[in-house]
Specification:
The chain is an alpha/beta fold and 269 residues long. It folds into two domains: 2-211, no CATH class; 213-269, no CATH class. The chain is 40% helix and 15% strand. It has eight helices and eight strands; from the N terminus they run βααβββαβββαβαααα. The chain has helices at residues 10-17, 20-31, 81-97, 171-183, 197-205, 213-246, 251-258, 262-267, and strands spanning 2-3, 41-44, 57-62, 66-73, 111-118, 130-134, 154-159, 187-188. The strands form two sheets. It has a six-stranded mixed sheet, with helices on both faces. A hairpin with a 3-residue loop joins strand 3 and strand 4 (66-73).
């Protein structure tokens, strides 16, 4: 058994997947794309910003043909899943739009692939750990139209809870899902259960004995921020419930006032 830091922490997730070989291996197993890159960037931002909300990408890399974003979200109950899905689609869209520099040419020079790993939220589709939002062109019946040079951009949502729930997940992907989930309690009971040598490297990279004091401090800040966010959320819910009882505002207005998703306001008693 080895002790590791949990991949629920942004600090540890970035540390784990920033090594070039681990990053490219993860991407290839989930997308089939083999990247030819020199480095993986973390906390990548575009200058100038794209849109009204500045985007920070957890992990970012690109070669001559592909631009890849990898995000991790330890999403508990801070907001409904749809809020996170919208957020990461915005990240994906920003990475697409940034490539267009002239109204004379709207062709995207690279394929954009966004991988998002949820370490707490359950999949909205039972027994499916991987969901894909793509940009393929389809008929009304859902048949993909094969167009040369057509859209291949995708957002791939990976839910790591219940790793064995989806019997259709390819084995290479399943090993990554199991490995991420395995780290959450800090104990890897038998690392030899994993055949992928990159996963063995990942466990070594995030072993407790290799955690620096700076990383520990960042993890404490993340944990404290999560506690603060939860308190703020409960306060917002309480205010929203009181406003609903008063009946003076519509649910849309309440959602705007307390900065909660409309779906969450509608679900309040």
């Amino acid at each position: 058994m080895i002790k590791v830091e949990s991949l629920k922490y942004d600090t540890i997730f970035k540390k784990a997947f920033r090594p070039k070989d681990i990053f490219t291996g993860l991407v290839e197993d989930f997308t089939g794309v083999h990247l030819e890159i020199d480095e993986v960037e973390n906390d990548k931002v575009f200058t100038p910003p794209i849109g009204k909300v500045k985007v920070h990408f957890d992990l970012f890399a690109e070669d001559k043909k592909n631009r890849v974003i990898v995000e991790a979200q330890h999403a508990t109950n801070k907001m409904p899943l749809v809020g996170y899905l919208d957020r990461f689609f915005y990240y994906h869209a920003a990475a697409l739009i940034e490539m267009i520099h002239s109204s004379q040419n709207y062709r995207f020079p690279k394929i954009v692939l966004t991988l998002v790993f949820f370490t707490e939220k359950k999949s909205p589709k039972p027994d499916h750990n991987i969901l894909v939002q793509d940009s393929e062109i389809r008929t009304l019946k859902g048949e993909v139209v094969d167009i040369v040079g057509g859209f291949k951009h995708k957002v791939i949502f990976v839910f790591t809870t219940d790793p064995l729930a989806d019997l259709e997940v390819p084995k290479p992907c399943l090993e990554w899902i199991e490995a991420i989930n395995d780290t959450l309690d800090g104990d890897i009971f038998d690392e030899t259960n994993y055949e992928n040598p990159l996963i063995q490297r990942l466990f070594e990279t995030i072993s407790v004995e290799k955690t620096t004091s700076k990383e520990k401090a960042k993890m404490k800040v993340e944990l404290k921020q999560e506690e603060i966010d939860q308190i703020l959320l409960e306060n917002c819910r309480e205010i929203a419930a009181n406003l609903k009882q008063q009946g003076k505002l519509t649910e849309d207005e309440i959602a705007n006032v307390v900065n909660l998703p409309l779906e969450e306001v509608q679900a309040l008693d």
